[in-house]
Amino acid sequence: MMRKSIQMALISLGFAAVACGGGKGGATTPGGGGGDQNAVYGPLEVGADWESYTKVNSTPSNCTDHGGRLCDTYVNDVGLEAYKNEDADIPSGTIIVKQSWEKDAQGNPGARGPLFIMAKKDAGFDDAHANWYYAMHWENPTEKWAARLGGPVYWRSPSAKVNYCWGCHDGYDRALGMVPEENRAW
Predict the structure, then answer these.
(1) Is 30 helix (H, G, I), strand (E, B) or coil?
(2) Can you tell me the distance from the alpha carbon of 170 to that of 148, in angstroms, rounded to the nearest whole number?
């Protein structure tokens, strides 16, 4: 039991390193995943059409919980109105994608960072975490991050590599961090 707890903690720390911008993470090379099929790199599945979603911020927001990167947030039509109404329940089928950028020397958007994906699923998917699916997809990590990660990554629920996501999101209202008011497009 103790060994499993230590393993889970180490896997979670690997994801935290990417999300928080820390040290060497749990590498996932293309086609690899160490037996975890939800950590094998491949084309984006959930949210692959994110560029057709509505961008809900007018300017990139500072995403301290996503590695201190700058982010644009996109929401699909299923959940758009509920996302903007902080009193509304988020419906199943909602997909939210954060496109992130590494900051350049002036603090402006630089190289593309990972995509962070949330999808609201039906009851029973993961009741302990409000039935949210989480993923991180980074097709072309910067040279610095590629060295740390071992190449492109695609970590998604139920892989333990995304436990860091719900570790933060469980503490938010509706499990959403929301776009800061000063960056909102509505």
Answers:
(1) strand
(2) 27
Q: Is the pLDDT of residue 5 over 60?
A: no
Backbone angles phi, psi at 160, to 5 degrees: -65, -15
Nearest to 70 by CA among 50, 105, 99: 99
The more confident residue out of 81 and 25 is 81
| CATH class belonging to 2-183 | alpha beta
Res 33: pLDDT: 64
pLDDT at 34: 72
Q: What is the DSSP string of 42-80?
A: -S--TTTTGGGSEE-BSS-EEEGGGTTEEEEEEE-TTTH
Token pair belonging to 27: 């590498």
- Sign for the CA dihedral angle at 65, 70, 76, 78 comes to positive
Taking the domains of the chain in order of start, what are their residue ranges?
2-183
Evaluate whether 126 touches 84 at the Cβ level (below 8 Å): no
Q: Name which of 42, 20, 39, 14 is nearest 139 in CA terms.
A: 42
Over the stretch 83-125, which tens digit does the pLDDT of each residue have? 999 999 999 999 999 999 999 999 999 999 999 999 999 999 9
Q: Do 39 and 161 contact (CB within 8 A), yes or no?
A: yes
Query: How would you classify the pairing of strands 69-75 and 132-138?
Result: unpaired
